[in-house]
Amino acid sequence: MPDSNQHIRELQAEIARYGSEQAFASLFRLLYDRLLRFCMQYVHSREAAEEVVSDVFVKVWEKRGQLMEVVNLEVYLFVAVRNHAYHYLEKYSNMRVTSLENGEWELANGSDPGSDMEWKEMMLLLDAEVNRLPDQCRKVFRLIKEEGFRYKEVAQILNISPRTVETQLFRAIRRLHEAVGSCLPEKLRRGGKLPPAIGLLLLIMEGWL
Are 31 and 73 in contact, with CB atoms under 8 Å apart? Predict the structure, then answer.
């Protein structure tokens, strides 16, 4: 994510040096949805996740003068959200939480209704299987395959070793392959033309078919 990282560093400098509200708003828009999805893996409630992520951004703004001391702001924010999510759960351990909704992955409309439904069902199946992964395994998978973080960055975010990250990702891909590999349409096996919506699926299955 080199372009994104550079943009974040530029926004970081504007916020820290000039207190730019415009730059802060851009940073918020750039990372909010990703941080929200990540936080929901801990608190399992959109309302709670919104509160946690918003609180993290408020604290970033309040300490904007120290922001240039942060080496990797993107990783820093994910770690901050994780820590705040833990604090939230500790504070509201008896709260009632709602389950995650399916269909977080956007599906492209195809010209063939039957094919479109086939891929929609496949992606929903894959989403359900991802949600069934063990907790740490699921977090590692989503951070790498959906958010694009590197192994070392995920290790920082989750406070685990890079080796553990590698192991957990391997387990996730193996389990997903066992769960959905046999359900893949025949044209995927033949390498035919595929709808753009399955780019994530191809990344997941790469090296396993």
Answer: no
| 95 φ/ψ angles, rounded to the nearest 5 degrees | -70, 150
User: If you compute the radius of gyration of the chain from its CA atoms, what whole number of angstroms results?
Assistant: 19
Tokens of 157: 């975010």
Q: Which helix (H) or strand (E) holds 83?
A: helix 73-91
The answer on pLDDT for 128 being more than 90 is no
Angle at 75 between CA 72 and CA 76, to 5 degrees: 80
**In the chain, where are the structural domains located?**
2-91, 113-205
DSSP 143-202: IIIIT---HHHHHHHHTS-HHHHHHHHHHHHHHHHHHHGGGS-HHHHTT----GGGHHHH
Domain 113-205 has CATH 1.10.10.10: yes
Amino acid letter, residue 86: Y
Give dist(CA 64, CA 74) in Å, integer: 15
CATH architecture label of 2-91: Orthogonal Bundle (1.10)
Contact 64, 19 (CB under 8 A): yes
> pLDDT of 135-194, one tens digit each?
999 999 889 888 889 889 999 999 999 999 989 988 888 887 777 666 655 444 444 443
